[in-house]
Design goal:
Elements (H helix, E strand, L loop, with lengths): L1 H16 L1 H21 L4 E8 L2 H4 L10 H10 L2 H7 L9 H7 E7 L2 E8 L2 H19 L12 E4 L9 H29 L7 H8 L3 E5 L7 H10 L4 H13 L27 E8 L8 H11 L4 E5 L9 H8 L7 H4 L1 E5 L13 E8 L14 E7 L5 H13 L4 E7 L36
Length: 455
């Protein structure tokens, strides 16, 4: 049962993940069904009634059967002689086989037979029904009749054709096309999803390289320098994301847990100081993951909003194009409209070291590497390194390559920041600590030692 539940959950996740694809396929199916109904209009039917001689038709019928005379006339009306005689009057012109497929002979009562014909147009259906009925009357009334002369006459000519309403037919075919497209879309989504190796859940991301997820937040996706400038000025995380970022800073040892908003003590030094006079964090992401690029700037804006003097640094990059618009936004002077902006400074440099202000308490460095062939850019050293990745944007191999490159450059990755986690992801990305060696419990009483004194 557990395996079945997991399979159903996996199925639902894949379909939801590719809901755009499924929606497009369903829309095409609906349009295709409606277009088919428009270009292939329904066949209309029209009926002609023929009266037989009453004396001849009132013959005793077999038990549970039909009148033998009437049954015989039905066969005659659908015979080769009658249908071939009607071909000259049918429309549009068709072969004998086609006419036989479009004509049905029946008997609503013992002394009446009916001829029902189909046609794309009402006039065609009416003309064909009348043509077959007239051919039958001429044939059975002539000396060529194989069943003798029968004085039949036209009781009611075909004067109106009936059929499904166009609107209803279009709706039905559109619905059928949509249902078929749902099945096709789900099959295609499952086929793609099963071969997709990108990591989506927090637990999958964490276990792929054995590093815990520190925070997962929604991120902005600026595509121009103006969008980055707006993010640096106006970003304000929701309460749940604010708590996630605060927790990540604490876990990395970059935020003070004591009272007060400011992380800077006001005496020219920072409580985060180690060797360089400030705490620093490198946020490493992949060039193919545009969403993860916003993690560093959002974390810097959040830290500044908590009263921590923060510098956002954009240094040399392996892929300059990935950070081009962000560098352009950082090159523009920042306005100081609030305390948040007064605590945030953006720095962009290409060579040498970035110049930090003496009151800087926290430095967040943004670095981007190529996921296929990563190489650490020559950016400033930091006290800690985290890997930024969007849900569904990278494979385990890509994350492993980035972590190895950072480790070789003496930058040990200590945590992961997840951008845009999937709403259906209920995992945490926490890596359980391995249990320590089991300690042998000491005995309550030592063997051979007397614990009581007998008197």
């Amino acid at each position: 049962m557990n395996q079945q539940g997991l399979d159903l959950r996996r199925f639902t996740q894949i379909v939801r993940r590719y809901k755009v694809l499924v929606s497009v396929v369903v829309a095409l199916g609906i349009l295709g069904g409606g277009a088919y109904a428009v270009h292939k209009p329904p066949m209309l039917t029209s009926t002609t009634l023929i009266a037989l001689p009453v004396s001849a038709s009132q013959q005793p019928a077999a038990a549970g059967g039909t009148d033998p005379f009437t049954a015989t006339q039905e066969v005659v009306a659908d015979s080769f002689q009658v249908l071939s005689g009607a071909l000259r009057d049918v429309r549009p012109a068709m072969s004998l086989t086609e006419l036989r497929q479009n004509v049905q002979v029946d008997s609503p009562s013992p002394d009446i037979i009916s001829v029902t014909a189909q046609g794309r147009k009402a006039a065609d259906a009416e003309a064909n029904a009348n043509a077959v009925a007239n051919s039958y009357i001429r044939y059975v009334g002539s000396s060529r009749s194989a069943v003798g002369r029968v004085h039949a006459h036209l009781l009611a000519s075909a004067s109106s054709a009936t059929g499904p309403k166009p609107v209803a037919r279009i709706a039905i075919f559109a619905l059928l096309g949509g249902l078929a497209a749902v099945l096709i879309g789900v099959i295609v989504a499952l086929a793609i999803g099963r071969n997709d190796r990108r990591l989506r859940e927090r637990d999958e991301i964490a276990k792929s390289i054995g590093i815990p997820v520190l925070a997962s937040v929604s991120v902005a996706h600026p595509s121009a320098a103006g969008g980055w400038t707006k993010l640096l000025k106006e970003y304000k995380p929701a309460a749940v994301h604010s708590w996630q970022l605060r927790t990540a800073l604490h876990q990395l040892g970059l935020a003070r847990t004591g009272s007060g908003r400011s992380g800077y003590d006001g005496n020219g030094s920072s409580p985060y100081d180690r060797d360089s006079g400030h705490s620093s964090l490198l946020v490493l992401s992949l060039s193919s993951d545009s969403g993860a690029l916003a993690l560093g700037p959002q974390l810097a804006v959040f830290a500044a909003s908590q009263g921590i003097p923060t510098s956002l640094v954009i240094g040399p990059q392996q892929d300059e194009a990935a950070t081009a618009t962000l560098r352009t936004a950082c090159a523009a002077p920042m306005s100081e409209e609030s305390a948040r902006y007064g605590n945030l400074r953006v720095v962009s440099y290409d060579e040498g070291d970035a110049n930090m202000r003496p009151d800087t308490a926290l430095v967040i460095v943004v670095a981007v590497v190529d996921g296929r062939a990563p190489a650490m850019p020559d950016t400033m050293r930091t006290n800690a390194t985290v890997l930024g990745v969007s849900a569904g944007a990278a494979t385990a191999e890509q994350l492993a390559r980035a972590a190895v490159v950072a480790s070789v450059d003496d930058r040990e990755v200590t945590g992961i920041l997840v951008a845009d986690p999937e709403p259906s992801d209920e995992t945490t990305g926490r890596i359980p600590r391995l249990p320590g060696p089991a300690r042998r419990r000491l005995p309550n009483r030592l063997p051979g030692v007397v614990t009581e004194i007998k008197r």
